[in-house]
Design brief:
The chain has 487 residues and is mainly α. The protein starts with a helix and ends with a strand. Its main location: membrane.
Length: 487
């Protein structure tokens, strides 16, 4: 294992070094939070693919393949579909807004007053997303070092918090590019072919497994529909995803770079399902499907390759964790803390104090994420809570604002509150993993948005005119002075 350990240690040291390098570039709020809005197509597509393909997509995707066969690809496949939809239909308009958070977009569209409540919901989503990624360190470090769960979470979480705090989005962008390359080599080019060969090839896999393992819909129509509702729509509105869109150099980069990343996700989804199916042939009686990835890596891969593939798993977890962490801190600072103080800071130019403030929020949120991850055990439940809150509370007012000009701030607020509370109450009633909370919560959110919007005065014409100007890319420079929050 010495060679494997060396590969992992070098990888982790490289992540910290890039954090230090990123700190030298992040001199303004724009540089720190959105990499100066300067990423070209290659870096943009690589980092976008890295953030959406995390531990759930890698370890969880292989686990679903182990449990359901090729149809286990649907969870990650719907993530790819969501990224494609975002890139093709919405990313150019989102990039032209030149904002930092989803809540700022809602304030621009509806004329204020929607930001604080939507910010709280988005903060809860990004926090839980970061927590689920941080919990996954325990699985990987257990395979590597037979490490205690709590110590593994602290070690992995501390590295992510360190490089994210140092350099913000620049550090995260650089590390994500490395993580994208490592994942591609480790999972697609090494683990996938080795797993298929060790399982005896596709003919042997078909001979040893039931036919439903090769049914594209074997996981069930209702499950696929739920994945589409949660993950495909979740990709359209998450702060962690939008904050990457904000890093694009221009509209074309956001659209085509995101399309490449979405297509990559579809390939990654199928690869994970095939690896899991192969693991089912080799290890038919594992105690848990989620251990399939670690088992096949530990037992079947040669020295050195094993270290690289485990580094790929770490890369997957770290990319999602760091992206969720900076999104959580950005929302906490810009959408909650600033509003509670009575102002919304659209931008502070090159004010170094803004960088210090955001850096402090990343550190505080990172510590909170690590502590929460230690306290929680169930990754699936935490992830489900995150996406149910996001989709149930924010999907309708965000997409409604982009697509329906009659939507009003009162309708948006009603939609967020009713949808969010409905999802929480229904999860308590039906169970966290039930499908009904997001179904009914989304319907109630939509009904509230439409009814209240039609029953209240239309959005002021001046607000809509300013909104259209920003969407068109005109008058797109953020304000330099703090703006009072409308009461």
């Amino acid at each position: 294992m010495a060679v494997d350990y060396t590969v992992i240690v070098v990888y982790l040291a490289g992540m910290l070094a890039m954090g230090w390098w990123g700190m030298r570039r992040a001199k303004s709020k724009s540089e720190f939070l959105v990499a100066g809005r300067r990423l070209g197509p290659v870096m943009y597509s690589g980092t976008m693919a890295a953030i959406v393909l995390g531990g759930a997509s890698t370890i969880g995707g292989v686990g679903l393949g182990y449990q359901y066969g090729l149809s286990g690809a649907w969870m990650v496949f719907t993530i790819g579909l969501g990224l494609l939809a975002l890139s093709v239909f919405f990313s150019a308009r989102i990039a032209r807004l030149k904002v930092y958070t989803v809540s700022e977009m809602l304030d621009l569209r509806y004329g204020g007053r929607a930001g604080l409540i939507s910010g709280v919901v988005m903060w809860a989503y990004t926090l839980m997303l970061a927590v689920t990624s941080t919990i996954a360190y325990a699985t990987i470090f257990d395979v590597l070092f037979d490490m205690n769960r709590t110590l593994a979470i602290i070690l992995g979480g501390s590295i992510v918090v360190a490089y994210s705090t140092l350099g913000g989005m620049w550090s995260i962008t650089l590390t994500d590019m490395v993580q994208f390359v490592v994942k591609t080599i480790g999972v697609l080019l090494l683990l996938l072919p080795i797993a298929v060969v060790k399982a005896g090839g596709f003919s042997e896999m078909k001979a040893k497994l039931p036919t439903e393992y090769f049914d594209p819909l074997g996981i069930g129509g209702e499950t696929i529909f739920t994945y589409v509702l949660i993950y495909t729509f979740g990709m359209l509105i998450g702060q962690d995803i939008w904050q990457r869109v904000f890093t694009a150099r221009n509209d074309r980069t956001a659209k085509w770079g995101g399309t490449v990343a979405g297509t990559y996700c579809l390939v990654y989804a199928l690869a994970g399902a095939v690896i899991g199916t192969a693991a089912k042939v080799m290890y038919p009686k594992l105690p848990s499907a989620d251990t399939a990835f670690a088992t096949i890596v530990k037992d079947e891969l040669p020295v050195g390759v094993r270290g690289l593939v485990l580094a790929a798993a770490l890369a997957a977890v770290m990319s999602t964790s760091s992206g969720a962490l900076i999104a959580c801190a950005t929302v906490a600072n810009n959408d909650i803390w600033s509003r509670l103080r009575g102002v919304v800071k659209r931008d502070a130019g090159d004010d170094h104090d803004e960088v210090k403030g955001n850096r402090a929020f990343i550190l505080v949120m990172g510590i909170a994420v690590i502590c929460t991850a230690i306290a929680l055990n169930n990754v699936v439940e935490a992830l489900t809570v995150a996406y149910n809150l996001l989709v149930g509370g924010l999907l309708v007012p965000i997409l409604g604002g982009l697509l329906w000009k009659r939507g009003t701030v009162h309708g948006a607020l009603a939609s967020v509150v009713v949808g969010g509370l409905a999802v929480i109450g229904l999860m308590a009633s039906y169970g966290i993993l039930a499908n009904e909370p997001v179904y009914y919560g989304l319907l109630l959110s939509l009904a509230s948005y439409v009814i209240v919007s039609l029953a209240t005065p239309a959005t002021d014409a001046a607000v809509l005119a300013a909104w259209r100007e920003r969407l068109a890319g005109r008058d797109a420079e953020p304000l330099s002075e703090p703006v009072p929050v409308p009461q």
